[in-house]
Amino acid sequence: MGWRTSPIWVRDGVIAALFAGLLSGVPSTIHAVLTHTPILHAILAAGGIVLGSGAPQSQTLFAGALVHWVLSLFWGVMLGIVLPRRATVLWGGVAAVAIAVLDLLLIGRMFASIKTLPFLPQLFDHIVFGIVAAIVISQRRRAR
Predict the structure, then answer these.
(1) 131 class by beta-carbon count within 10 Å (0-12 exposed, 13-18 middle, 19+ buried)
(2) Is the pLDDT reported for residue 58 higher than 90?
(3) What is the maximum span of the chain, computed from C-alpha positions, in angstroms?
(4) Which of 48-60 are b and which e, b meaning 16 or more Cβ less than 10 Å from the residue's Cβ?
(5) Among the listed residues 138, 110, 101, the one whose alpha carbon sits nearest the alpha carbon of residue 52
(6) Are 21 and 129 in contact (CB under 8 A)?
(7) Exposed / middle / buried, residue 86 (Cβ in 10 Å: 0-12, 13-18, 19+)
(8) pLDDT at residue number 1
(9) Which of 12, 32, 100, 128 gives 80 a disulfide partner, CB atoms 3.0 to 4.6 angstroms apart?
(10) DSSP character for 52?
């Protein structure tokens, strides 16, 4: 199955994930700058999921970027499936909070690298992701 023959919700979700994935790190980056903590802390934590704590930083950064994009694509497609046609952006924000609870508090707490991340900036990253993804999905639906 090619890109043009994939279901529309897959295409909506992938495109939404590309935009949302690029913008979703803004809150935690601002927090890092304001608190003088390493800007790459979150991406290194994501890489720690795959490589653990002893891997070289360059490999951990690459793994973190890969983990971020895989999760972004997954959640983007899931939002493309579940977000309703009405109040899409509102529900994108609500879904983002639920995703944050799952990602950070339930699953994420099983990984030492994720436990080190401050919760609120990561929560806001998720909310930005959900809202941006919902805006893209809503606009694509409206254009059809």
Answers:
(1) buried
(2) yes
(3) 49
(4) bbbbeeebeeeeb
(5) 110
(6) yes
(7) exposed
(8) 57
(9) 12
(10) -
